[in-house]
Write a structure and sequence with these properties.
The structure is a homodimer of 300-residue chains.
Chain A (H helix, E strand, L loop, with lengths): L7 H13 L2 H7 L4 H15 L4 E3 L4 E3 L1 H28 L5 E6 L1 H6 L1 H11 L4 E6 L2 H9 L5 E4 L8 E16 L12 H4 L4 E4 L4 H10 L6 E5 L2 H9 L5 E4 L11 E5 L6 E9 L6 H17 L2
Parallel strand pairs in A: 3-4, 3-5, 7-8
Antiparallel strand pairs in A: 1-2, 5-11, 6-9, 6-10, 6-11
Helix pairs in contact in A: 1-2, 1-4, 2-3, 6-11
Chain A binds a DNA duplex (25 and 25 nucleotides) through helix 3.
Chain lengths: 300, 300
DNA sequence: CACACTTACGATATTCGTAAGGATT
DNA sequence: AATCCTTACGAATATCGTAAGTGTG
């Protein structure tokens, strides 16, 4: 008994017959020939080891046991259907949840448009974004709390797979009246004498910058956490700064100019980080694909 | 999607694999060869239109969709199993309810032993007895409130089937010191002169008696509702009475004697009444069979 | 190369629809 | 005679197990 094998179709057939009380009609409902339907009911009765219908040529009625089972069967078919619909909603991305982690610079400037596009395509999917510094992003992925991350780690962590999605060139930002504003594409060396406004030491922007400067030291005048703050400081004339292209929107201000740095190998690499094993949910995969696609479109 | 056909076995296989995370082991659990099991999972994934497991030669893990479905599947298999167990309990008469109606004379004297036997055989079945006069018994059956009845109706009602289960001979009951006590088997005529204690007019005992007497009139001294009352009255010397064999236990008292009436065609016929169409529940059928069997044993 | 999942394939079992049978009105 | 469920039976389909294939540590 514990190993009985019943199918959803048998339950549906049973319920159809219980409601319509006619083999002929119920068979039509189930898209079966009447004899096949009859056999199906007989099989079901055999598996349940009881007669479910009193039937003769004139009438078809549930037995007491049939009525009992009908109540269960109705609920089972409903629950089964609900489970299938729910699963399918997730598969078809009508429901679901995606949690990604991304560097604040991406979260503020570039991601919103991606999220908007995603939302439009899959309005039923709940989005969750952790805008954190690179290491924290990676930790969320490793712990499974985030589906994937956009971070600047080049280190290949065990169990994580990283994929380069963007190489972000750096730009000088300074006031229009600054001497460097005259240069179309200044070199790093030329920047050295001027007071410099840094991002905080653990930001990806700062780390890429330090790595590029290495033996050199910048003439630090100020260290801030937020790019918007840096923009304000530069505009106020406290100093210059150097930031990746994807953050330039912060510096689109009347009194500021931005200049690509002369080829210096100074770039910030952005990686998509995900767990090595375990596929993404349908929803996460969709966002993943959209991210990749959008990135490709930006820098072909 | 609405017409997907899943089987309980597929769900069990899916859950086995989700838990054991090994095709080989899960296949063994399901008593299948590993390739057959593999095909089964593949079919399931096809029907659900999604991959449920991330698998390679080294590891088998649920996908996000698989985890979602696993929760549903677990509950479905449980509910399904519970429904099957419940149904089987009814089929095997470990659970259930039987409601019968019976004449008070049977309810008090003869049925208790039958019920005791039934209870012993099927301790899980709830018993329900309506001890009512014949017409009320039949009404309960007709309305479907009782599974069957033991009544004295000979009338064949539409939609009901009646079956004679017992022909109850009548006995004189009187005091030991009554003149009739001397007769081993008095005739009805001899009773006529003596004061008579009747059952109420709508009782089956009274009706059978009136039918037998017909042109004659009894010398009624008293009319009572309960046989026990009649017994007390007879013992007190108020009169004699005539009652069916099955009620004689009421009259087994020190100062009373019972005498079978001489062949007079005076009998009370007891019928088992049930609905013509519609089988009995397993529990009701069991009680039905026990009633028939016990009746047969009493009067072979 | 050993282990674990997949593919290939012939054999078996199940399920189907058509046609004939039986019972009831 | 008409209607409805059941039985009979050959055909189509699905499922099984064995054996070979593939990929990974």
């Amino acid at each position: 008994m514990a190993q009985t094998n019943l199918s959803l179709r048998q339950l549906r057939a049973f319920l159809a017959l219980a409601e319509q009380r006619s083999f002929t009609q119920a068979a039509a409902t189930c898209h079966l020939s009447q004899p096949a339907f009859s056999a199906l009911i007989r099989t079901l009765e055999g598996e349940l080891n009881t007669r479910l219908f009193d039937r003769d040529t004139r009438s078809v009625e549930l037995t007491a046991e049939g009525r009992l089972f009908a109540a269960s069967a109705r609920r089972l078919v409903e629950d089964f259907g609900a489970a299938l619909v729910d699963l399918n909603d997730h598969v078809e991305r009508r429901k679901g949840r995606v949690h990604i982690a991304a560097l604040p610079s991406l979260a503020a400037g570039w991601l919103p448009a991606v999220f908007a596009g995603f939302r439009k395509a899959w309005p039923g999917i709940e989005l969750n974004l952790s805008d954190l510094l690179s290491d924290a992003c990676v930790d969320l992925v490793r712990s499974g709390k985030a589906d994937f991350a956009l971070a600047s780690t080049g280190v290949s962590h065990a169990g994580l797979s990283t994929r380069l999605v963007c190489t972000d060139r750096f730009y000088l930002v300074c006031r229009k009246d600054h001497p460097l504003a005259a240069e179309a594409s200044p070199t790093l060396k030329k920047l050295a004498p001027y007071p410099f406004i840094h991002m905080s030491r653990n930001s990806s922007v700062r780390q890429a910058l330090e790595a590029a400067l290495h033996p050199q030291q910048a003439n630090t005048v100020l260290e801030v956490d937020q790019l918007a703050t840096a923009a304000g400081m530069v505009e106020a004339g406290l100093g210059i700064s150097v930031v990746p292209a994807l953050t330039l929107f912060h510096f689109e201000r009347k009194n500021l100019v931005t200049r690509p740095l002369a080829a210096s190998g100074l770039t910030r690499k952005i990686y998509l980080v995900r767990r090595q094993e375990g596929s993404l949910s349908a929803a996460a995969q969709a966002l993943h694909d959209l991210v990749i696609e959008t990135m490709k479109a930006r820098t072909p």
